[in-house]
Input
Amino acid sequence: MIRKMGCGWKLRHLMAERGMFQTSDLVPLLAERGVILSREQVYRLVTQVPQRLSMDTLAALCDVLECTPNDLIEIKVVDRQLPKAAGEKANDVPPVRRSVVRRPGQP
Output
């Protein structure tokens, strides 16, 4: 089985630890570091795990929050392989069920 990895995003938690409770608080602080993002972009950055994050934005966040990338991002395994049932072989795969679509009037 392939291990699927995911990320925990702790930006909101780190902001709260530093007394920053509004996402708009980050907009001017990031702009001071050359990262220009709209309020909506910053809101999504704070409230959702980003799928893509520029190194400039990551560096600016770390500078603003006085932290490291390890403080912001938590790597974790999302899918885990299930334990095998007694007598099950490693390559046992359930059979594929095929369905047949019949039009009206066809047997």
The CA atoms of residues 13 and 72 lie 9 Å apart.
